[in-house]
Task: structure prediction
Amino acid sequence: MARLEKVDVVVVGAGASGSVYAAVLAKAKKKVVVLEQGPDWQLSDLISSDLWGRRIKTAGAPFLLEGRNPVGYSYQSGWGVGGAALHYFANFPRMLETDFKVKSEFGRGLDWPIAYKDLAPYYDKVASDVGVSGDAKAEEIWRPAGKPYPMPPMKTFRNGEVWLKGFAAQNIRIVPAAVGMNSTDYKGRPACIYDGWCHIGCPTGALSNPLVTYLGEARKAGAEVRPWSTATRVLTTAAGNRVTGVEYYDRDGKKQFQPASVVVLAAWAAQNPRILLNSANGKHPKGLANRSGLIGKYIMTHYASGTWGLFDENVENHMGTTGAQYMSYDRYPKTSHQGAFGSTFIVAGTALKTNDLGGFANARLDLFGAELHAFMKRAARGLTRITAFGEEMPNVENRVELATDKDEFGMPLGRIVHSYGEDVPRIWNANFAEGTKIAQAAGAMETWPARGAIPTIHLMGGTIMGTGAGNSVVNSLGQTHELGNLWIAGPGIFPTSGASNPTYTIFALSLRGAERLAARWKTVAA
Amino acid sequence: MEHIMKRRDFVRGAAAGALAFTVGGAQVLLTAREARAEGVPFRLLKADEAETIEALGETLLPGARAAGVAHFLDQQLSVPPGEALLQARILNVRPPYVNFYRAAVGAVDKASLVYNGRRFAQLDTGTQREFVDLMRQGKLEGWVGPPGPFIYFVMRSDAVDVVYGTMEGYESLGIPYMAHIPPHKRW
Result:
């Protein structure tokens, strides 16, 4: 194994969280290396096609997916520089105050060791850094006041507007969606042109993917990004009290060791535990930072109740963004639905394409043959959708563990075991029932629920934060309780999931962690 | 052949989105529809496998056969998994993807033989439709292989990809494609 020159920080993963750490630390004059297992995508690689968009989904070692509700890993995942944030929808809702104190307020789930007020300044900072469009004032019916967003709300289109009457009839308040996209030119990046190709990677720079935000800043500040570099282990000193760097395989399949003063694992909620478990040694026989046995535990996802409405007008469903035009937290209180516990977050107005998982060909999976052709023609004119995302409570049985099969580098594959608890189908069904009422009140000619297996959307947990090594893996900054120079970033450190899209919170948590790491550098890296 | 390209053009075209087929030992860039029309030989699929895929595709979405569903799959199955544009990639199918398709085609033909005494491609269109309807609902007893509803979902998606996932497909529905970076050769 070749031993490379020591650097200050090695970050594993060039997605949303890794890019923030790389930017903050490179700007703090630290020598930063970012290891990314996939290609070094450029904006010019982001071809406008659902077929070609699949290239930026995982092509790494597969995860074995088990449990009653196996995680839809591949669709959510990223592959290459930018990670999953290269194809995210850039919906930027925050978590709310109640999300941080679920255990103490309701006796369910877990508490975060921080409160909303600790994260709020970082939500505001991220909004300024990457550019957020929305109406912060309007959101204050649900959350404490913060800074205004730097850009006004995005344009709306009929595929979103047609729902407003239905929401009003159900007494659901709706406001412009906060999104990480440009409604106006911002920081040298152009305004969005609303052509609905966000989900396969926005090549114009209007959407705040890492390439045009933090990772771009990191590179400018001198961070080195090494694509095609697959991390397999984090190594420690003989005493086991400090990490010394990362073992990885380079693009030629050669094993390398990158020594570093600090290691930041930012390889997403499933891969981080896989690497930590695979890093077991004599001093850490259960895996690094795993004295609690909680590495890999409390994996969580969101689920969605999508309601389709077919309207007798041209709703221009090709226009807009893949994310949302409108959002509502009116069903966010944990006990909004009788007999079930968990938040619901509602969005409306999304641009539709024909194919791929989110394409409208899948709106009626029962149709095939000539009937499918006929449906496609009708749907192209009048089909639109609202979506209610639901919260899953953390369950220690939902986990990532190592399997016996190995990948091309001899590293055990990861297995994700995931089953929903009894609250989930109740909330899922309640949201369908409400969605149908909204669609009917909105005047849809036809409406139907997007049923099937309960979906799994986003991925959180696996290396949760808490107050100490007895109940968690990391502190609120992402620093592991056991190894001071080993940090973990990303949605894996969430102890509860809320119901809102996670990436804004990932950015905010990562910024908070990275700034503290830079401020405490001498202590942490010593 | 007019599609034969110089290396520089090939690299540029491939990066932009054309599919690379091998004709007479030369790499050419074609759409799957063109590849089928020109009778480009399959790289991986056997003739009977391609025949079943085309018949399934045509049942799931008329027009898929002419749109080159079998050539599309054959070309995609022959490239490294990291370069594949298949829906199977995002549905957690474990590479190499050809294993799934071989198992799926085998399961369909085996069940068709049991139920109808003939391979799927040899059934009349009405019987093919009845078979697919039962397969999608998991109602074919004694099924062996990947679950019928999953095969339905994956191969229906493949058919939709080649018919409606292209710029021509959008045009046929009257939807403006609005590409930032257009897929070369309408892919």
In short: Chain A touches chain B through 49 residues (CB under 8 Å). The two ends of chain A are 25 Å apart (CA to CA).
